[in-house]
């Protein structure tokens, strides 16, 4: 029995102060982000989607809205799809500026392999894969959509591909409103595919490539 679970990163967020917003409430999609969510939903318009679940954060729920309308489904909230915990949450974050220019914060960077500044990669991978398995079970023989965030999705992908979980954030293949799709034959993963339905929108708005806290 073939089942596909599409893990979708949310669209662009309205974040004029360019902080690392993480799990903070009140960060919603920008108008561009809503267009991205619609483009992602349209990319799956002819697919057999029977189940939708989403991170409870506003930006993820808003990204799920066009999918819910298109497939006439009510999204299920799943805390396992949440953004990862990060001790730099609420701060400006970058090399040479923001929180990183203050020596008092450097101790949080002491261990990039766990990592020391936030939720352990192993914990992220376990909860994300649990959410995917639940979605697979709900959509047996069909397709499901799980809306989540960049770091959790990339950690999940590396876990499924049996790669080390620590990595260089600059090489993540997980653009805004992208789909990382896990294909199952029964309970066995047979392949992973990736697509960027909103790539044309990002190309028109280069600043969207550097979205923080996503």
From TrEMBL:
GO terms for molecular function: phosphatase activity. One of its GO terms (cellular component) is cytoplasm. Gene3D superfamilies: Phosphoglycerate mutase-like. This is Histidine phosphatase family protein. It comes from Virgisporangium ochraceum.
């Amino acid at each position: 029995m073939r089942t596909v679970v599409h893990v979708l990163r949310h669209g662009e967020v309205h974040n004029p102060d360019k902080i690392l917003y993480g799990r903070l409430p009140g960060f919603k999609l920008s108008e561009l982000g809503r267009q991205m969510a619609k483009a992602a939903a349209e990319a799956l318009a002819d697919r057999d989607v029977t189940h939708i679940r989403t991170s409870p954060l506003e930006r993820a729920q808003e990204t799920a809205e066009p999918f819910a309308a298109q497939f006439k489904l009510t999204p299920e909230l799943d805390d396992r799809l949440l953004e990862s915990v990060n001790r730099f949450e609420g701060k400006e974050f970058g090399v040479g500026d923001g929180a990183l220019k203050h020596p008092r914060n450097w101790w949080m960077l002491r261990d990039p392999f766990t990592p020391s500044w936030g939720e352990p990669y192993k914990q992220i991978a376990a909860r994300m894969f649990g959410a995917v398995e639940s979605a697979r079970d709900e959509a047996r023989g069909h397709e499901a959509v799980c809306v989540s965030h960049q770091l959790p999705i990339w950690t999940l992908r590396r876990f499924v591909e049996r790669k080390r979980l620590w990595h260089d954030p600059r090489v993540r293949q997980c653009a805004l409103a992208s789909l990382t799709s896990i294909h199952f034959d029964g309970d066995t993963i047979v392949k992973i595919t990736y697509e960027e339905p909103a790539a044309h929108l990002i190309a028109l708005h280069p600043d969207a490539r550097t979205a923080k806290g996503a």
